[in-house]
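Blackboard transcription, Thursday session:
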Amino acid sequence: MTNSTTITLLLPEIILIGAATLLCLWGAFRPLRAAAIVLALAALVSAAIVMWVQDDNLNLFSAAAPTASATGPLVVDLFGHLAGWGILAVGLVLVLMMARPQQDGQLAEQLASLLFMLAGLMIVATANELILLFVGLELVSIPTYVMLYVGRHDSRGQEAASKYFFLSILSSAVLLYGFSFLYGAAGSTRLDKIAVAVSLGGLGASAISFGSVLVPIAILLMFAGLAFRLTVVPFHFYAADVYQGTSNANAGLLSTIPKIAGLAAISRILLASLPGWETLGWKVVLVVSVLTMTLGNILALWQNNLRRLLAYSSIAHAGYLLIGLAVALAVRTTQVGTAAGGFLSNSAALNGLGAAIFYLAVYMFATLGAFAALIYLSHGDRQVDTLDDIGGLNRTHPVVALIIAVFMFSLAGIPPLAGFWGKFSLLYGALTLDEFSAQGDIWLRPWFVGLAVVAVLNAAIAAAYYLRVIGAMYFRSPEKQSSSAIRGLGPALAMAICVALTLGIGFLPGRFIDGAVRAAQSIGQPAAQQAVVHPMPIGPSSALPIIANSHPR
Amino acid sequence: MHNILLATILLPAVGALLAWLAASGGLKAVRLTALITAGVTLALAAHLVVQYWLDQGLRGNYAVQEFRWLGESAKIHFAFGLDGLSVWMFGLSALLTFTAVLVSWDAVKDRPGGFYALLLLLECGMIGVFSARDIILFYIFFEFTLIPLYFLIGIWGHEERRYAANKFFLFTFTGSVIALLGLIGIVLWVYNATGELTFSIPQLHQLLGTHPIPMDAAHGHLQLLIFLALVSGFAVKVPLVPLHTWLPLAHTQAPTGGSIDLAGILLKLGTYGILRFCLPMLPDATAMCMPWILWLAVIGIIYGALVSLVQVDLKKLVAYSSVSHMGFVILGFFALNQLSLQGGILQMINHGFSSAGLFAVVGMIYERYHTRQISELGGLAKRTPILATFMLIFTMSSIGLPGLNGFVGEFMILLGMFQRAWSDAPGPLGPQLIVIAVLSVSGVVLGAWYMLLMVKRVFFGPLKEGHISPAHAGQIHDLQFNEILALTPLVIFIFWIGLYPKLFLKPIAPAADEILARTTQPLENYYAGKPQIAVREIATPMVNPPELQTSIARKP
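(Written on the board underneath:)
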């Protein structure tokens, strides 16, 4: 891969960073708010146009997509590309959420920070290099500190910013420490080379080697560092305080962008590049998943502050995401689910990672929409904070109440909304594993059936607090008449986009799930396994179609 | 034909939107929109039901409509169709929504746009459940019904509506997500065993006939697991004791229109699920769990009846009577006998008519006197003779007076149950089943007791009219035209089914036989190896079982 092609591939990121730099400089001269917003939107649109052209050139969406070319610092595959589209969509919603009138200054700096984050995310999703990946992650983290700090000047906002800052740099340090072990074991920072090295001399070898000691330590540290971004138990505890202390827009940002970064990095490093750790890994992930969703949901039951409630809800949803990860790891121990094919088509079990990606998208738009609605309802100095503030909303703002109800039902996973398909694909993945592992590895069954049962019970617990929100809006009478302040077109548009996606994915989920599964398949398997014959613990070494694996009992 | 079915499902959703939009036009516009929508839907549904009845040859494959839905590769289809199990419930859903709209005519004046929109959405969900031929589509409609009813109870309900709405939602939601695991389990097993990934209910049914889900320990008791998941989900809806606690509350707090749909249709979603998935698709587990579920059913019958006996609240009494009557339906299903199964399916419909009628009348009383306390009412037959007449008919239907529909259903169920217990008991189950059969009869007796007691107190004796002052009491009017129009179809069907049940059993019988063809063998197999306790010795002295059964069952 030559330098010029690398630059072409990075063009969307370059556009975003360029616009962000421009906004930063321009911010010093206090530009018109509208102009800053238009510039940010223009950057997003032009990045999208560039990506659209790239789609045509790279031909990633066609059935006969070229295999991932991962020879340079960047990977070109469907995963990176679809992640890019998702990131731009989230970015669009976030820009619109910030674009509300009568907010105190420094909008240009905030928008600049957001654009930096988006560029960082896109780098994380396409990185084939530990250092580039880390740069991408920091490009997400550092502007986040700025965002948290710039928005608010009260003591709670300051507390939230500093809390997030210290814990975030700690997690970055832990992650970097893990990278250093990985480099030590593999001798390269390139992910494809690491994959080859690890599968040859690392965990795959029976003798205790240098690598077999270093790599598990590296995995543990990297998982811990990334778990912070996904708000996974036990790295979750900052979330509630930080969400509560910051503004609605920032809470929306925190509930989405770090999660994209976390999932993309985990997919790139832990799933795609480290063969062999799955034998132990799926159990760890599974246990963490159960803990995360249970703790998040139970703690959310008692919250009256909406941002705190949504913070615990976002922790719980991180637990659901990990179901997909556990499935993706466990599938690799059983030699099923690797065959190509779309969602629920004849030839393939549902890919766990694909379900996780789809779930993340569904969760993000519902959560962002809810925060956008809260921004829309807030006015003047007064933010909408607690359940009491939205009491009787049905009477005062029936349409907004209806839209929030749609988001809550979607988060609770009730058909026919998008959230149902998210839960469905995760559960389907978990149970698929159970079914297909039953021949050789009956021992998987209690784990994954148990996981699925815990997940649905959690869905029921979660429904309780989402219903509290809906109940407050519909079954109470409004306590005070809210003044008719200027609401702003931006948050309204953001809500509209989110509700359209939530309903649209709910009624026609096929394309979206297919896309997520294919994206996951484009990286799902360690690259080394295609090149190097790597003995698996169980079953034949080549990826067989599933039918060949199933025999009548 | 195909498009008519689709129109029947989509029309209420369109009507809901129109009713919501018509809210600015005032109460009249909304009511009229809702009534026309419900009426046209009813006409279409009636047309389909009649056509189905006339054209028996089509049987399971009636008015089938399939669309690819989730893209090219996905196997989940937008597939609809009717068969013998669903055709009557399908018609009943349309009819009871029409009733609910008419009953709410004057009762709902607060935010009518939302109310009628939700009522029509509920209809869309109910009709969808009964016509879905895809397992996931079934589930989507099944769970979707929660949303409209949650709001109907929570916004337009009575004093404790918020608590009732939440409890209703959480109970049934918990049940149905567990059921979802079971449904996915069925699909995955079929995929695993046959290599065919399908979500189509008829196809799954067919494939499971040749590839039954294993019950043995080597496969981790897979069929039992799936059965338990499904039953725990559906039993909450039915509701089967001890999962019934949401029901009295939800019923009491719901507005009348909601109660009618809740009692008439939504409870049957549970029994329909059991009928559609548990019995034919999981026959071995059904055989194994049969005595347990029969016990739960009979406990429900007696418990529901006893609790009804002590109720002071009219609506709660009717609600608990539903627990008792739905126990009969489950009893009929799990006796796994031709008569009882047909009776159970018929009883689903019967209970739909009688309980919907009872709730409607109770709602009308409440509207007039603003009380549901039995002690505060009395002698209403003098003041409102037409209302009292309707009440009496529904009561008699509910307690199973011969000549009315309730009798046919309960009699068939009990007869079947006794046949199963005495002459056809599998293996060692005989004594247990006899106890269950005898106990279940007491439910009929108790049912007559509490219902008649209630009717006597409320409608006869000295006139008591709650807190209405005598001056206002004179203005209490009897049933109006819309109320009579709402109740008359129910009464017609109550007599029709009671006097000529054969007509209604005709589509049911082949469907029931199809289920029994699946369950008979597993039942014999499962209990064949078990030690034979001296059942026959107990059973044989009691010769001439038919006479015995008749005499017991006719007690009411």
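Lecturer's comment: Residues 155-186 of chain A form the longest helix (32 residues).
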